[in-house]
Each structure stands twice: as C-alpha cells, then as structure tokens.
Specification:
alpha/beta; five-stranded parallel sheet; Rossmann fold
Length: about 140
Amino acid sequence: MKLFLDSSAFAKRFIDERGSEQVEKLCAQATDLCLSIVCVPEVISALNRRRREKILTRQDYALAKEQLSEDVRDAVIINLTPPVIHSSIKVLETGVVRTLDALHVACALNCRADLFASSDRRQILAARKAGLRTKEI
C-alpha cells in the first residue's frame, strides 16, 4: 500500500498523542511512505513548539529529529512541481482548506497514494472530494 501522511499524521510518529498507534500500524502495512516536501519543516516546527512549551526536553527533541531523518531517508518525497501546484489550485477552488493542506492533498494525488491519512477533518474532506481514499487519525 502506498501511504501518504500529511504533517499532522506524520508528526504522531515522533510525538506520543492520540492517533500515534494508528499511524504506526499504517506505516507497518505500507510498502511506500509518501510525504510532501513541506512535511519535514512542519514537523520540525511542531517539535520545536513542544520544546518551547517544555513538553519535550532537549534530548527528546534530538531523538525525535534523528528518528524523523531516518524515516525521511526511506520515504518518497513529493516536490512542488507545476502539476502539483495545478492540483492544489483545484483543491482550493473546490473545498474549504488552507494552502499547505491543499498542497498535501495535491502531493498525494501526484504520487497516486492508496491511502491519505491526516488529523485535519477539513483536509480529509478535501482529499475525499479530490478522489482519495482517506483515514482520519
């Protein structure tokens, strides 16, 4: 199964929260993990916010960042190409979704993901409208 995780779902691999176990199960079933080029900076941002809030220690942050780098090494990274941008415009025109969320959906369409997973309800609805099979985490 070709699995596409948006940033909210992918972050659950490094931040123990509701849905983390579901993400781990999906990743174990996946033959390919696909991510948008914007995913890593978004996850790093989320980890840094938790570090500033003192939810993560400096050591926890370093470990999560190392695990993130390892996961990304094996992932298929979808770049922002003209076809992806074109798809994101269609997603924005047909649903109520933020820019980066539309880019994630467009990247999933571009890689022909078998499953799109996210924690964002609006993004899930936009992905379904675009024709993707979805899993809300």
